[in-house]
Amino acid sequence: MTVGRTLLRSMLAAVVVAAGLQAADADEWHTTSSLIGPSKYGENFQRYDYVNPDAPKGGTYNSVVSGTFDSFNPYIVQGSPAAGLQPFGGGLLYDTLMDQATDEGSVSHPLIADAYKYPTDYSSATYRLDPRAKWHDGQPITTDDVIWSFQVLKANSPMYSRYFENVTDAVAISDREVEFHFDQKGNRELPKILGDLVVLPKHWWEGTDANGKKRDITKGTLEPPLGSAAYKIASFKAGSEIVWQRVPDYWGAKLAVKIGRENFDTQHFTYILDDNASWEAFKKGGLDDIKPENSSKRWATFYDFAAIKAGDVIKQEFKTTSPEPMQAFMLNQRHKLFADRLVRAALTYPFDFESMNRTLFFGFNTRTHSYFQGTELASSGLPQGKELEILEKYRDRLPPELFTQEFKLPVYDSPQAERKYLKQAVDLFAQAGWVIKGGKMVNAKTGEPFKFEILGSGETDQVISSPWIANLRKIGVDATLRIVDPSQYTNRVRNFDYDVITGQLQQSESPGNEQRDFWSSKAADTPASRNYSGIKNPVVDALVDRIIFATDRDDLVATTHALDRVLLWNYYVVPQYYRAVVWLAYWNKFGIPEKQPGYRGADIDSWWIDADKEKALAAKYKGSN
Predict the structure, then answer these.
(1) CA nearest 256: which of 51, 33, 503, 11?
(2) What angle do CA 376, 378, 380 make, to 5 degrees?
(3) Domain residues for 29?
């Protein structure tokens, strides 16, 4: 899952290159961090250049959410956290030490911490807290809160545990400074990404509730927790509704990352189980103000209702420059059916992207060919130079084709393509010991049929899976799709209880510690990790470690090329597609800055409610909600 995308106080600290932070900048206080190059804002970051610093505060942003919720604790495996909370980061409730930039990759700006520093050997990092930082009850955010948060998150959160695997402890070295110690030197990314640590209120979580019962951070709760960020929970109906209210005296409102942002007084989330009902709710108005659209068919053909024609609902495309995710059918190797690389390769050939894009997706999509699509980190051609040098160490444990053939996915570009690629799939199955008998793909020795289930949670899964299922059946593979409700889907995915799912893995331009959560052998056995395919490969483990401890940018790029190539040639997934745009449809009640951050595509936190527009809509659609 996804996981980051510099302003420094001195000229020395202004230059940040390579895979991580320069040793020359060590022991200097950094006010902004970067893993690739200096921030575009130079040395004096005052606010994002796209926001309206005078954006008015007020109004309500309404949103519909799929599924249900049963917890306000997102940092444990159990339960479904409510909208506004998230398992990594602070969501609407909590602030983090630093805030990831919205308009640059691998850059973070001050939030709870106003600066940080690290030694030349990257063996530790020290964060200095902003003395103004406080909780919603007025108590200051302290070094004790930071240390306690690090300890409980590493112990209970699968994401933070792997992200900070090399962080051994945190100690207070003054009333404002926390020093984090690492178990290895040379992890150039680690000092920076400690800024992603969410800080939780120790005094609240270790206290008692209204009934005198001691709270427990390791358990779910529906008691609204104490927070520190711009919003707090105002009200809720368990499982069906949650309302967030902007905190009028929020301590960080004047920080550079907050100016012109977080403008809605209220954020109201309504839960609806059915996707069609959610669509109707958006068309009607009142429950859902902004609809991020993922369906090509709906984007192309469904936006013709009355409010669109009247200009009261606006369709807008926001182009993005960030890396594209690997969206794919994830083949769960925890099941022996997918243990053979030849079988996994065979399953790749019946996926006819070109026909799907033409007939289902209106030509909007592009085939994904890399786990690092859209970046210099994507492998191509044959391995050479430093990448080849790295891969040679593992030659006897890698597919031989990796060194002699360019990795290519099937391209259904002619009427003959289907016959060609389905035959290749059958041939690969035969090499793996599977044959077609009586129209069924069966194990040549045991007669066991090749049968699996794709787990899905909505209509989109039906659209994506059906053509693949149809082609698989042409070669005797019995693939089926099972749609379950969102809560059941989430729980089953957390516990790897599936044969195949459609999943997404979002990379950054500076991969590092999060790669363990995606690919490591340890993550394969850890519930709620993002190693959806259950990869346990010593070569992958070694390459992930080399990425994390890359000596410079060149080493990082070469090693990531190698990792990408090893993942592709092992056919752990069947790649699908991406779109380098964000599609949003929204009711015309917002003020929107003329410019939006190209890296993210759109920053809804920079929008505001236009009172006149909202009033006009309310009068026109009176009673619609």
Answers:
(1) 51
(2) 110
(3) 24-317+580-624
Closest CA to 61 of 86, 94, 88, 83: 83
pLDDT at 623 over 80: no
Provide the 10 A C-beta neighbour count for residue 485.
Answer: 14
Dump strand ranges (E) for 239-384: 241-246, 266-272, 290-292, 313-319, 326-331, 366-367
Alpha-carbon distance of 200 to 179, in angstroms, equals 17
Give me the helices (H) in 302-438, please: 306-309, 341-348, 353-359, 385-392, 401-404, 417-431
Q: To the nearest whole percent, how much of the chain has pLDDT over 70?
A: 95
169-185, pLDDT tens digit by residue?
999 999 999 999 999 99
β-pair partners for 290: 586
pLDDT of residue 624: 53
Asked whether residue 108 falls in the same domain as residue 255, the answer is yes
DSSP 3-state of 366: strand
Q: Are residues 282 and 425 in the same domain?
A: no
6 — pLDDT class (breaks 50, 70, 90): very low
Beta bridge partners of 292: 584
Cα–Cα dist 233/308, whole Å: 33
Which phi and psi (to 5°) does residue 128 adopt? Answer: -105, 125
Q: Do 248 and 394 reside in the same domain of the chain?
A: no
**Which whole number is the average pLDDT over 330-334?**
98
CA–CA dist 16, 4 (Å, integer): 16
Phi, psi angles (nearest 5°) of residue 40:
-65, -15
Contact criterion met (CB below 8 Å) for 287 and 270: yes
Whole-number pLDDT of residue 274: 83
| pLDDT at residue 256 is higher than 60 | yes
Q: CA-CA distance, 54 to 52, in Å (whole number)? A: 5
First to last CA, the chain: 35
Give the CATH number, domain containing residue 554. Answer: 3.10.105.10
Contact of 175 with 143, CB cutoff 8 Å: yes
CATH number at residue 245: 3.40.190.10
Number of independent structural domains in the chain? 2
Both tokens assigned to 16: 């940040």
In a domain, 84, yes or no: yes
| pLDDT tens figures, 33-72 | 888 888 898 767 899 999 999 999 999 999 999 989 999 9
| Claim to verify: residue 531 and residue 560 sit in the same structural domain | yes
pLDDT in tens, 338-384: 999 999 999 999 999 999 999 999 999 999 999 999 999 999 999 99
Looking at the structure, do residues 359 and 308 belong to the same domain, yes or no? no
191-232 residue pLDDT tens? 999 999 999 999 999 999 999 999 999 999 999 999 999 999
Which pLDDT does position 625 carry in this prediction? 46
At residue 576, φ and ψ (nearest 5 deg) are -110, -100
Q: How many CB atoms lie under 10 A from the CB of residue 354?
A: 14
Give the pTM. 0.89
- DSSP label at 18? S
Strands (DSSP E) contained in 8-66 are: 33-34, 60-66
Given a contact cutoff of 8 angstroms between Cβ atoms, the answer to whether 529 and 1 are in contact is no
Contacts of 216 (CB under 8 A, 6+ apart): none
In a domain, 31, yes or no: yes
338 with 403, same domain: the answer is yes
Average pLDDT taken over every residue of the chain: 93
Tell me, yes or no, whether 511 lies in a domain: yes
Q: Is residue 7 part of a domain?
A: no
